[in-house]
């Protein structure tokens, strides 16, 4: 896979952000960087669910509004949202107006509270699914961050989340989540972010129960 060289800064990158400044900023500063904050992990789970069937840049452009209407993805506050909130959000053009996905975000917040009770944190629960050695998905296209992609680890995470009552957490969605939150480092070998992400992952104390 050829590296994308930016004419603006000359840095070699994964090709998928193209020349969109917002997408490049996300790629450079966030994607693949390890996350242990429960709030940020919950946000990523929710937004990956909203992304299902859509492009990630669509979600990224609406993320600020998602944060506003979902209380900064404060888990307890989202868990307390009601049917009236769902009806209100279905009228909000600033987000993805999909009843199933909105309902899933609220349901998943409630299930996350249960995980926190059991494991102490969402992070401790999530990081236990980290594969022993990083590897890329079974069927993954680097030309578009939208190909069907899943691994044994993402299938295991998906299966356990669904057993716990989560929705919109299929194995492909879970793999995208794992990429985003740094459980795997899928920057291409020549991308300038890859060694930075690898160093961050190496230095990270894994959260435990």
Automatic annotation (TrEMBL):
One Pfam family linked to the record: Adenine_glyco
InterPro entries in the cross-refs: Adenine_glyco (IPR005019), DNA-3mA_glycosylase (IPR052891), DNA_glycosylase (IPR011257), Tag (IPR004597)
Listed name of the protein: DNA-3-methyladenine glycosylase I
